[in-house]
Amino acid sequence: MPTACTIKQVQPPSCPGSLQKQQSQWHKWSQDIIPVHVEPYLWYLRVSQNLHVAVDTHILLSQCNTCIIHVLNVTCVFFDCLEEIKINSCPCTPSPMCLMKHELFASTPTAPTLAVDLQVLGFLRKFFVHLTPNTSAWCEALESFLDGQGYKLQSKVC
Q1: pLDDT digit string (tens) for 102-113?
Q2: Helices (H), the chain
Q3: Distance CA 26, CA 46 (A)
Q4: Which of 37, 52, 56, 69 is deepest in the core (most CB within 10 A)?
């Protein structure tokens, strides 16, 4: 017999070295950004038939005429390339929302410079479900793949 689901309030990360900035960012994502992304994400799942069909959309400019428009350069990660785009955002339509409406998930809640295609995120979600717990192999494989595509990671710690 099915049971009712309960929703548990998630607490911010509580590690000893946690900074106010991290907690503020967590709060902004959990309370402001993620809830607003649900409707556009469900729309995209519906029109793409659960990521099975490519949806022909393009990055649109913010349609707001009353706010100050901010132009951002965003690097987008797709399966076959990295592409730099310009988006316009304003307080009425924040940049993560603009990106989500066009199949992209922003890397930060405010002024993102990186966004990832929902197809890539869908693949990674399934990949990590089936991945054996060997993070070194995953990191080396990803670095090797990106190197073969002509990209170099510069954040490797020796």
Answers
A1: 889 888 877 889
A2: 20-27, 34-47, 95-100, 118-130, 135-148
A3: 28
A4: 37
